[in-house]
Amino acid sequence: MTSIFHTGLLKDISLILNNADDFNVIIQVGEDENIKEFRAHSVILRARSSYFKSALSTEWITKKNDMIMFNKPNITPIVFDMILKYIYTGELDLTNHLGENILGLLIASDELLIEELSNHVQDYLIKEQTTWVQKNFVLVLHTVFEITNCKKLQEYCLESICSNPQSFITSKSFLSLDKDILSILLERDDIPIEEVIIWDCLIKWGIEQTFSFESENYNISKWDNENYEALKETLSQFIPLIRFIELTPADYFDKVRPYKAIIPNHIYDEVEEFYFKGIIPKIINLPPRIGKIHIESKIIEKKFISIIINWINKKDAKVIRKKNDSLYNFDLIYRGSKFRIDNNSFRNKCNNLQVPILVLIKCQNSKKIFGGYTPIGFYSNNSNNGFIYSMDSFIFSFENNDIQNMKLSRVISYHYAIYNNYYYGFNFGSDALYMQNQNLYANNNNNNYEHNLTDDIGTIYTIEEIEAFRVVKQ
């Protein structure tokens, strides 16, 4: 049996940081009046940091009196002292350090390729330095997005913005936001903020970046073609990220049309068709910004969830979401590939729940995705056979993951919304959309729902995957 004596080993090695006289590296850190020299041992530096393993190789080093001389002016003495203690002792106490020094440690640990230290500092800033991070949010935001391997803190900053987007997006700090970070923000669907606010602030950001925020540049009545062209160039990568169809007609008329010259023609034409003809855009079909929604589906993309939520809220897919509209999470309760695709498996997981349920079905050899929603579940009143009343059930289909080909069919015969019978896994409207073991039928012969979901009435689809979610209001 091998005996382990790590504690004594670490203690003895840590002593040579300050007490040994056989060092062979002098590292000068800092600049101007804040410079300090540290003595270290190349063998330990090389073992603990791949950066030093390369930097202290024979091709790189500069020697003076047989001593390796090394300069790091971009790292402060306080930060490098923490790094050396970590390298020699494997210990780090950040309790009494200022936030700016901890952030400097994060930058330095990334540069010196010490991944373990970088991950620890990110966690510490998130968990223990929340107040400081929030007070210096823009500094932290710009810093961490310059560090590729800083995903934890990057996501934390983005989540912080998404939790209260309006206060940040309408702040003066927003006007100095880096363009790459702005692009990442505008790409997100989980920012619960009205699109008109994003549009207004994007225009202000563009003016600030293009001209500087001066009164004569802010007054567009005094602009000429050169002004518009300059702003168009600044905002070219951001205009396609705006959800124009989420604006009210009044906001579109008052806020967007005055800036027609900065919007590419193909985007502007689609927006005009939407507002004047109700035609859903084919190119700018980004989903609404509906906030963070939980769903783990292998069948549909998250962009369709906002459409389904609109339907649950009794609205059309293209209707603009209001602040007081209900949002939902979707908790997976059944997946066919996990529990088997048959009537009993579905009913065992879903039929004893008198809660709102969303069902999604992907079929073999078909581009269609079918689904149905019941606000009262598939079982009620302790009955295992018979119809269930519902005014708000609906069935739907997508094709090619394209909202252009979506079909919605709401229940019209409320007393026949759901048919509960052990011959079926589920059955909307007796025959509008139902599962019978591995087969799916979408006939609607009894016309208990508004429309047929397919033109191929009588087609028997083979279920490839099926999911059911408990729908929970946030």
Helix-strand blueprint:
Blueprint: H1 6-19, E1 25-31, E2 34-40, H2 42-48, H3 50-55, E3 62-64, E4 67-72, H4 77-89, H5 99-111, H6 115-128, H7 130-135, H8 137-144, H9 151-163, H10 165-169, H11 179-187, H12 195-210, H13 215-218, H14 225-234, H15 249-256, H16 265-277, H17 305-312, E5 328-335, H18 336-339, H19 343-350, E6 357-363, E7 368-374, E8 386-388, E9 394-399, E10 402-410, E11 418-420, E12 427-428, E13 433-436, E14 439-441, E15 460-473
Parallel strand pairs: 1-4
Antiparallel strand pairs: 1-2, 3-4, 5-15, 6-7, 6-15, 7-9, 8-11, 9-10, 12-13, 13-14, 14-15
Domain BTB: 23-96
Domain TLDc: 298-472
Organism: Glomus cerebriforme
Brief sketch in words of this structure:
This protein has 474 residues and is an alpha+beta fold.
Describe the structure.
With 474 residues, this protein is α+β, with helices and mostly antiparallel strands. The chain has three domains: 1-91, Potassium Channel Kv1.1, Chain A (2-Layer Sandwich); 164-277, Serine Threonine Protein Phosphatase 5, Tetratricopeptide repeat (Alpha Horseshoe); 302-473, no CATH class. Helix content is 38%, strand content 19%. It has helices at residues 6-19, 42-48, 50-55, 77-89, 99-111, 115-128, 130-135, 137-144, 151-163, 165-169, 179-187, 195-210, 215-218, 225-234, 249-256, 265-277, 305-312, 336-339, 343-350, and strands spanning 25-31, 34-40, 62-64, 67-72, 328-335, 357-363, 368-374, 386-388, 394-399, 402-410, 418-420, 427-428, 433-436, 439-441, 460-473. This is BTB/POZ domain-containing protein. Residues 298-472 form the TLDc domain. Residues 23-96 form the BTB domain. InterPro entries: BACK, BTB-POZ/Galectin-3-binding, BTB/POZ_dom, SKP1/BTB/POZ_sf, TLDc_dom.
